[in-house]
């Protein structure tokens, strides 16, 4: 039995983080109904192959520019537990579907709002993308090599980590509150807020004086030679994360560098020499060779796989499910009964 099987969610069709949150809720059993715009005359909308973010819900088409369409949407929301929308601030209000009206119809409603900049502030009305939200939050300035421009980390941090996942978490929190009090809430999920919260570790280190703003100057941003990626002889990469001394010692043993660096892991003056030695060592063998040498070894060293290779790795088996169109990411996290977990 899925935990959210009695929760009904109305999703107003959007892009990226909103659909991701709806997918996450549907994966856990929520009944999600997506409201999409009317298709163009003579066309039949079809879900595209690989549209994983759209899985697990039914779809209806309404013309929200008409009174009839708005009335139908209101009727659906009146019976629902939650709503998801990802329009610019004020758009839902202009359609007659803002939280004041809908929560008057349904006081228990959890009204989930997904934006980049938030519902208020001097930039709330502006467009933006993941890269922009990371840039303004300061997080983008921490990513990449020291002597090159900041590196866009796909759109995982802002759209999905700081956006859709925080929206889903906020909605579940508000649903629990509605269950306890009978009163719904507006969930204002802004990507700049979620990203800033995700970066609490970094902000905490800065407050302690233990984080430098220069890229590649810190323990986990590529500054430490024992926490970065190294190229192999065949042009592939191995990821090294041997932070703790016990793993660092094992790394040195496999690389045959124990005599040179065993007692200087924390000595930053030795890091350039250490990095050069690591580069030379990894460049001497192919990825398959290094993968075999570190297989089953507790050193926090792994091959950097392609997406196709990841699907076929035995440790990744539970991370994918086979559907009609082929493998796709499985619902996460896994919820295990006591018997399953033992």
Task: Tell me briefly what this model is.
The chain has 342 residues and is of the alpha/beta class. Helices cover 38% and strands 15% of the residues.
Going by helix content, strand content and strand pairing, the class is alpha/beta
Task: Give the count of helical stretches.
Answer: 14
Mean pLDDT: 95
The rounded Rg comes to: 24 Å
Q: CATH H-level name of the largest domain... which superfamily?
A: Crotonobetainyl-coa:carnitine coa-transferase, domain 1
Helix content: 25-40%
Indicate the CATH architecture of the largest domain. 3-Layer(aba) Sandwich
Spatial shape: elongated
Strand order in space, largest sheet: 3-2-1-4-5-6
Number of domains: 2
Protein name: Alpha-methylacyl-CoA racemase
GO molecular function: catalytic activity
Pfam families: CoA_transf_3 (PF02515)
Region (Disordered): 322-342
Structure in words:
This protein has two domains: 8-39 and 51-198, Rossmann fold; 227-309, formyl-coa transferase, domain 3. The chain has helices at residues 17-27, 67-78, 91-94, 99-105, 130-137, 156-181, 191-198, 200-207, 245-255, 258-261, 271-282, 287-294, 307-312, 338-341; strands at residues 8-12, 31-36, 57-61, 82-85, 110-115, 185-190, 227-231, 237-241, 301-303, 320-323, 326-329. It has 14 helices and eleven strands. The strands form three sheets. A six-stranded parallel β-sheet has the order 3-2-1-4-5-6, with helices on both faces. Helix 1 (17-27) packs across helix 6 (156-181) and helix 6 crosses helix 7 (191-198). The chain is 38% helix and 15% strand. It has 342 residues and is an alpha/beta fold.
């Amino acid at each position: 039995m899925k935990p959210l099987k009695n929760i009904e969610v109305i999703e107003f069709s959007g892009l990226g983080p909103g659909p991701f949150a709806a997918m996450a809720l549907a994966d856990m059993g929520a009944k999600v109904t997506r409201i999409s715009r009317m298709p163009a005359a003579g066309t039949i909308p079809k879900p595209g192959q690989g549209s994983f973010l759209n899985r697990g819900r039914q779809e209806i088409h309404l013309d929200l520019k008409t009174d009839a369409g708005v009335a139908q949407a209101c009727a659906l929301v009146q019976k629902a537990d939650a709503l998801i929308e990802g329009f610019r601030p004020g758009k839902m209000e202009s359609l007659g579907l803002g939280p004041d009206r809908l929560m008057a119809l349904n006081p228990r409603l959890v009204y989930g709002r997904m934006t980049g900049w938030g519902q208020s502030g001097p930039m709330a009305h502006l467009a933006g993308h993941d890269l922009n939200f990371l840039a303004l939050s300061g997080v983008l300035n921490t990513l990449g090599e020291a002597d090159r421009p900041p590196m866009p980390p796909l759109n995982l941090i802002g759209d999905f980590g700081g956006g859709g996942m925080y929206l889903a978490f906020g909605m579940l929190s508000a649903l629990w509150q509605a269950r306890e009090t009978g009163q719904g809430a507006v969930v204002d999920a802004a990507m700049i807020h979620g990203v800033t919260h995700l970066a609490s570790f970094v902000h905490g280190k800065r407050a302690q004086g233990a984080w430098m703003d220069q890229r590649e100057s810190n323990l986990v941003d590529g500054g430490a030679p024992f926490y970065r990626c190294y190229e192999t002889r065949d042009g592939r990469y191995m990821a090294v994360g041997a932070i703790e001394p016990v793993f660092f010692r094992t790394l040195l043993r496999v690389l045959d560098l124990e005599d040179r660096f065993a007692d200087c892991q924390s000595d930053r003056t030795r890091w350039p020499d250490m990095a050069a030695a690591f580069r030379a060592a990894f460049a001497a063998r192919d990825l398959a060779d290094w993968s075999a040498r570190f297989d089953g070894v507790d050193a926090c060293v792994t091959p950097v796989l392609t997406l196709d290779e990841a699907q076929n790795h035995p440790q990744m088996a539970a991370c994918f499910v086979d559907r009609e169109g082929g493998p796709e990411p499985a619902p996460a996290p896994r919820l295990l009964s006591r018997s399953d977990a033992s």
